[in-house]
Structures are given as structure tokens and as C-alpha cells.
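Bump. Still looking for Box C/D snoRNA protein 1 C-alpha cells.
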Amino acid sequence: CETCSKEEAKYRCPRCMKYSCSLLCVKKHKLALSCNGVRDKTAFVSVNEFTDLNLLSDYRFLEDVGRTADAAARHCIVHSPATKRLLYCLRNKARGCNIELKTLPVGFTKRRENSTTFNSMENKFYWHLKLIFPHCHAEYTLKGVPDDKILADILKPYIDPVESDPVVCQRLKIYTTSPQSDVRILMKIENRNRNSVRYNELDASRSLRDNLKGKVIIEYPTLFVVLKTLKNDMVVLGQDGSEPAENSDSESSSLSSVEEGEIRDSS
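Sorry for the wait, here they are.
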């Protein structure tokens, strides 16, 4: 058992492949790793390990996607003039801020979750924002984040050792105990091939609007908070869009399970 290390393992989690010996240990591992226990249909499988079962799973996954897309296309809200006007307004206002905002059909998870609005009186966005902390397998959703708010201030309630919530601080202990200079904020570059996923590094001292300028966003921004001192598989492009000088094969081909889910969900 990978939780208590005392008893012989009887179960294996379909999601993270951790071995457990009892229901108690199963619950403990789910709580510790924020694991839902549901098999990840989009998990990476190498060619050498690919079997007929994986092929069948992919086929059924595509069938499910097709049914969901068809049901969404038939949804009355999709053809609602008010909905179309709202989405057109959001995309148009984003374009005015030099942000390319793309929306998904009704039925997609990110479309249902998105609560982004634009205040015409204040002339600014209030973004739906997702923060992902890969080193702790944690993610948080923020609603109504003004686009003029500094990124460092957005992160304070999570990683600041003084201002952060005690419960959150304990969960993100590896971040709160690290120097603030080690914290990097990354955002995935959209419209790239699956085998060449890249990230832009954002400036924590600038506002959300300034950081989003010139970037493509699908529904809402998703920010990955990582530490320089810890190894991660995210390949970050330079400010001029150039590839890093040294780039291992593992960095260009693998992502954490959290990121994989994001990619498939937004494709």
C-alpha cells in the first residue's frame, strides 16, 4: 500500500495508479492528491504500450465527444440571439485590448464554467480565472477578477506566507516556504500541435490585462504557478518567441495529468 506502507495492496486507483489496501487508504490518497479516482481517458500512452483496449477506449471517447457536440448544437441557448450578442461583445472588446478571445460551443466544460463579463461603465473585463499549482496537485477557480489587478496581488491569498488562508497555505506549503523570486507564472500557448506544447512566462509585477495582450485565450485564462527550483515538464519560450537553448525530449513530450486534461478539454 502506497498510503500506509503496512498492508498488502488490494486496489489500484484508475486515475493515478496508486496502490491501496483498504477503503480508508483509498480515501486518504484521494484527499492527499486531490484525486477523483476516475480514469483519465486522455492520459498519454506510448506506442510500445498501446493495445487494442486503448484503441477501443479512444474510439468510445470520440463517440462520446460526437454525441456531446451534437447535443450542444441542438441546444436552444446556442441559437439564442442574446447569447450570440453577448459572445460577440466579449470577443470584440477583447480584440480592442489586443487579446484574441475564442469561445467553445455550449456543452463544453469550459463554456459552462466561464463567468467572464465586461463592464462597459468601467471599460474593463472581470475574468473567470483558473490557477493551477502542479507541484501540489491543486487548482483554484476565481470569478470576477478585474483585468487591472496585478498578478502578484492575485496570488497573495494563495502563496503569501502572511496573507494567505491558513488551510490553503498548508496545502501549498512548498510555495509559501519558497522565496517569491522562485515563483514563475506560466500560460499555455494555444493553437499549437499536441507534440509541441509551449508556455509563455507572465510578469507578476504587471496587471492581468497587460499580461494577456497579444495572446490567444480559449474561454478564460488558465495560469500555471511553478517554482524555478523544482523540475517540471513545461517548455517556456523566450520573450521573442524563440525556443530554449536546451530542451530535453521529456520536456517537449510530456505534461502532468492536470495539463493533459486541460488540453483535451479545450481542443
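The longest strand covers residues 124-133.

Edit: fixed formatting.
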